[in-house]
Design a protein that fits this description.
The structure is a single chain. By secondary structure, this protein is mostly helical. It folds into three domains: about 90 residues, Fumarase/aspartase (N-terminal domain) (Fumarase C, Chain B, domain 1, Orthogonal Bundle), CATH 1.10.275; about 230 residues, Fumarase/aspartase (Central domain) (Fumarase C, Chain A, domain 2, Up-down Bundle); about 40 residues, no CATH class. It is built from 14 helices and six strands. The two termini are about 50 Å apart.
Length: about 425
Amino acid sequence: MKLWQKESTNTSELIEQFTVGRDREFDLLLAPYDVQGSLAHVAMLERVGLLPANEYVLIKKELEAIHKDIETGNFTLSADAEDIHSQIEQMLTERLGDAGKKIHSGRSRNDQVAVDIKLYLRAEVQQIKVLVLDLFELLCRLGEAHKNKLLPGYTHLQLAMPSSFGLWFTAYAESLTDDMDLLMTAYKMTDKNPLGSGAGYGSSFPLNRTYTTELLGFSSLHFNSIYAQMSRGKTERFVAMAISSIAATLSRLSMDACLYMNQNFGFISFPDALTTGSSIMPHKKNPDVFELIRGKCNRIQSVPNELALLIGNLPSGYHREMQLTKEILFPSIEDLKACLKMACLMLENIIVKDNILEEDRYKYLFTVERVNELVNNGITFRDAYRQVAGEVENGTFSFSGTLQHTHEGSIGNLCIPEIKNLMAIAAGL
């Protein structure tokens, strides 16, 4: 029997299949957090006198046993369970009788799933934070290691000015600092307790929501019971915007890698074991990993908009569309974590080509250097520009000087310590 089912009613099987949707699939991800929420809830019920101490001890013991089964992979949803919440209450009732029927006092599935999702997203954001920091540290190390290796810089995909691998790697490192700012903002939004809001209108039971907030380790609670329910969907969208920002950085990095691996560029390469081949062309070494990171991350960037369209015209209160946020967001989180791990694997094995700019085809990268050299010798910038433009036009241009880039964030001054400090502040380290 469903938690909401009455003795005299039966729901069509088609209706049930449609309304349950993919909940059972994603509820397995929520299982440990549902038990955590229930442990906090029954502890609170015992404290306020709604659950006898002896029954609380029994329920707590069984919930901890269920949690252990979940952690060890010995937990499954039974065929007749509508969702994880139904499953756990059913298990407790089978094991403890009437005591198991008391755990839903002062609680609705609405605030139960809301707290599950908050706990799940909070944990996932922390995992993503660790993976972003891993990639950030790797990019900084690569930037330092290859800071003296020059690289063509492009605007409009046309040769522009000299760059360096140090500048390229640390550009993406600094991009991740902004992404981390957004991620930690999403974490702050997630770190609030909706438990005790019931169906959205509170309860006549003397619930102690501050106590469950402390037990679950939330920094605060959603005070207004209606807004506690309204935060559902909004929380998911904040997390989606944060992972979308990280995905945008990864996608752009992957696009660069695909270009730079191309034989017409040939700036970087990877061991054969990290590339794929062709079924017909024996010479091919394809950047499939970066192409898939690019594709997956481009899809992730659509998630905030998909969530916005889902919840955009809903009035206050709970609506069944909220169920769909899980199937939109949860797979994207898994994809992003996989992409972060694969990006680290690839970059740990990157091979950077030396002496790229010694090739004659890159000589026009130094036109600005030549203009600046003339300016330093007393010629006005505009006259120097025209002189060098004429040299390019008549084929007499050459530059044999040295690069003098010293300002903050240039080839000769990557500001890696400053970028690391930005990340430390963003990540709260």
